[in-house]
Amino acid sequence: MRDSEKEVTYERHSLKTTLLFVFAPALFMLVSPYWLAALNPLGSTIVSSAYFLTEAVLLFAIIAFAARRESRKFITVVGYNRPLPILLFLALAAIGAAYAIYMRDFFSFPPLRAFSMSVMQSMQGWPSIFSRLPQHNAFFEGLGSAGRPIAITIGAISVGIASAMQTIYFRGFLLSRIDHWGILAPIAIWLLFVIFHLGSPWMWGQFLLLTAVWSFLAYFTKNVWAMVVAHVIMNTYTAIIALGSMAVGSQ
User: Fold this and answer.
1) Whose CB among 16, 17, 120, 171 lies 3.0–4.6 Å from 202's, allowing a Cys bridge?
2) Is 8 part of any domain?
3) What phi, psi does 75 have (nearest 5°)?
């Protein structure tokens, strides 16, 4: 049996440990706008990009630390590296991306929209820290209305990197360590990924729909990389929409 086909055993995480690995970086990102404020003179594009890149570096550092502690290579510690036939890999990536794009732009569920609006209204009196946090949709929409291709490119790259690391961290690193929970594992990661976005609870409903299948596909195939591609495709699509709105607005 080749090394790439051998089943790799991962450190098993308890519920307590899993929650720690989710909420520690989530809280760190919640307060990060305070020190990123030093970049304000450079413009909102730089600040927002720095925010997303900070998240990516943070999640990468956690996995790298685990790799060193377990004396393993980074790629091994990520988990869920089972090789897939190329056509199956591409099909899974396409399914994951198409599902998310459909849920983002073409599926309408009024109760969730009402929930989002009520949360946004209730948060008007919350600490100002929440108003400092960059949001994916608002970020791209703002770049599109600004009419700056370079800004959109920077934004797309930074969000793409952050999206890839989020998927690697949640649906690879964390999911593989609670695999022994059975079918509850992908359900838990699905919900925890949504809650991880502490600074935008009004987006939880949308995130719940967008990411519903990703954890399950990674769990059943034992391959996280197809979902990494799906996540990046979805955000690339978002950037293209922003570019399109910029082009239309300039006419």
Assistant:
1) 120
2) no
3) -60, -30
